[in-house]
Amino acid sequence: MEAGWIILISLTIFVTTFMLAYYLIKWRYERRFYQWIQAETFKLEQEKQHISQAAISQSRAVLGGKFTEQLAPYLPEFKYDPTEARFIGSPIDMVVFPGLAKGDPEEIVIMEIKSGKHCHLTSQQKKIRQLIEDGMVRWEFIEHNEL
User: Fold this and answer.
1) Measured between alpha carbons, how far is 100 from 81 in angstroms, rounded to an integer?
2) What is the pLDDT of residues 71-126, one digit of tens each?
3) Hey, which bits of 21-118 come out as E strands?
4) Which residues fall within 8 angstroms of residue 138, CB to CB, at 6 or more apart?
5) How far apart are alpha carbons 117 and 125 in whole angstroms?
């Protein structure tokens, strides 16, 4: 009978030790997992904040650029009479008719206005510039008579 008790006590100690070890290991990994989730959540929130700040900055830059495009005829760098400028917006910003205010237009100036640190023409704007430089510009007249 004593051998049975020893086996029962040994088995109880083994099971208890196993259960303690299991729950201790489970608790440690769950704690690490929770810490990892907290760290990743913190990184995600920082990234969201960074993206939001970048979007706001980009939006301000775009709005500032659009404002500058329309204000350009009144800036000191603009060498034409502001009344001779016509804002288009896209794909080019402006057409200027020097001499128009005096009733004698001398030329036509197609203008793109850029502001900011990274001023680059789009591929469409480069193509339009090339077409103008190659003389691929013409006049068309449409006369519509109502019936």
Assistant:
1) 9
2) 899 999 899 999 999 999 889 999 999 999 999 999 999 999 888 777 889 999 99
3) 85-87, 94-96, 109-111
4) none
5) 18
